[in-house]
Structures are given as C-alpha cells and as structure tokens.
Amino acid sequence: MSIEELAGYNVELVELEELKGQILTSVDVEKDGICFCTTHGKKYYLYHQQDCCEVVNIESVDGDVENLTNEPIIVALERSVEDSNAKIDSGTYQWYVFATLKGTVVIRFHGTSNGCYGETASLFTIK
C-alpha cells in the first residue's frame, strides 16, 4: 500500500521508539514518505498527513535502506530545526536516523507552510 492510499484508512500515531527492536522485511521509500514492513506483518508509515497550505516531502536518504532489513533496529531517533531560508512563512528540516548492526540510514524531510500548519513527518500504523 502506498502513502497516498492511506487516506481511506483509520491510522494511529505511534512513537518512533516503537520501531526499536523490530526486524524489518522491507523499506519502501516514496516521495512523501516511507513504509516499513516488519517480520510480524505490521506496517509503519513515516509521512506527513498533508493539509491545505503545506508541503512535506523527503529531500534525501543517506545510506542503504537495505541495511535496515533482517536485523533488529537499534537506533530510531529524530531531530528537527527551523528552516530560516523558507521561501514562504515557515519551514522545518527533520532528520530521522535509523540503525541496525549492518549500518545507518538518515532520512531528511523538509516541510513548508504558511505558518498555520504542521511541517513535520510522524510515524503511523493502521488501526
């Protein structure tokens, strides 16, 4: 299922820490988010639920996402900073760092809005 297809589902916001200890079978990167599938059949979606007057997309993925599969996730953390050069009213850079014993992957999101909306990605699963 793609990120776009989630619109019709009842999704639940979960903490990033929930990925720690999970063993992923696949990691699918799309323009606006990432799907993580686990060995237990659970799917997690790291994306931003878009609203009016905002855009949040993945700008870069550093590292090989295959390093996140078939080993337990030992690091799952997030950092955000304001984008002082945003071309509209507000902007945010957000980095997600994931690691297993095989390697580390850093995913950078960038969000902009008119200042009235959120600009960061979050981790969801289907209820």
Task: Summarize the structure in words.
With 127 residues, the chain is mainly beta. The protein has one domain. The chain is 0% helix and 51% strand. The chain contains no helices and nine strands. It has strands at 11-14, 24-29, 33-38, 43-47, 54-62, 75-82, 90-100, 103-113, 122-126. The strands form two sheets. The chain has a five-stranded antiparallel sheet with strand order 1-9-4-3-2, with no helix packed on it. A four-stranded antiparallel sheet has the order 5-8-7-6, with no helix packed on it. It is globular, with a radius of gyration of 14 Å. The model has no long low-confidence stretch (mean pLDDT 88).
What's the arrangement of secondary structure elements?
Blueprint: E1 11-14, E2 24-29, E3 33-38, E4 43-47, E5 54-62, E6 75-82, E7 90-100, E8 103-113, E9 122-126
Antiparallel strand pairs: 1-9, 2-3, 3-4, 4-9, 5-8, 6-7, 7-8
List key phrases describing it.
single chain, 127 residues, mainly beta, five-stranded antiparallel sheet, four-stranded antiparallel sheet, 9 strands
